[in-house]
């Protein structure tokens, strides 16, 4: 769960950086990269741990 929060937090930071650079093509790419990390971090929070491995 901690890793999910770290990924989401870094995604927010990267998205904000990309938002401030949006008139440039690099800004849109960085914004999308950050948004993808936010989505993946939130989805990882809802994933059930696989207990069969233990």
Entry keywords:
54 residues
Q: How is this structure best described in words?
A:
There is one protein chain. This protein has a domain at 18-47. Helices cover 76% and strands 0% of the residues. It has two helices and no strands. Helix 1 (2-20) packs antiparallel against helix 2. 9% of the residues are buried. Keywords: Membrane, Transmembrane, Transmembrane helix. The chain crosses the membrane at residues 5-22, 28-46.
Secondary-structure class? mainly alpha
- What share of the residues does DSSP label as strand, in percent? under 5%
Helix content: over 70%
What is the makeup of the main sheet? none
End-to-end gap: 18 Å
Shape: elongated
Secondary structure tally: strands: 0
Helix count, DSSP H or I runs of 4 or more residues: 2
**Over the alpha carbons, how many angstroms does the gyration radius reach?**
14 Å
State the order of secondary-structure elements, H for helix, E for strand: HH
Poorly predicted runs: none
Q: Look at the structure and give the mean pLDDT.
A: 90
Keywords: Membrane, Transmembrane, Transmembrane helix
Transmembrane segments: 5-22, 28-46
Summarize the structure.
The protein is mainly α. It has 2 helices and no strands.
Explain the layout of strands and helices.
Elements: H1 2-20, H2 25-46
Helix pairs in contact: 1-2
